[in-house]
Predict the structure.
Amino acid sequence: MRKTMSQWEQELPALTFHKISRRLLLNMRRIQGLVVQDRENAAIHCAGRQEPLLVSRVELRRIRQWLELAGEEGDEFSPRKAASDRP
């Protein structure tokens, strides 16, 4: 049985999974690094995945906002250790 993105979003824990775009729910605890490739694109390196996940500038902004919020709320996940920006 197929599920819609909304159904997955409701079922998965909101503190761990974040909707980045219409097509992408990201397990934030799996992020190992963020690499900005150019003005329009970035690569997200995730644990358990050899190839980086390519995201747009808008999606990267959403990820950064979530990481900042998670850090401010004192979540047990330490986004600042897990994700680093490299020019």
In short: The beta strands are 17-21, 24-27, 31-36, 41-46, 53-56, 85-86. The helical segments are 5-11, 57-72, 79-82. Residues 41 and 56 are 5 Å apart (CA to CA).
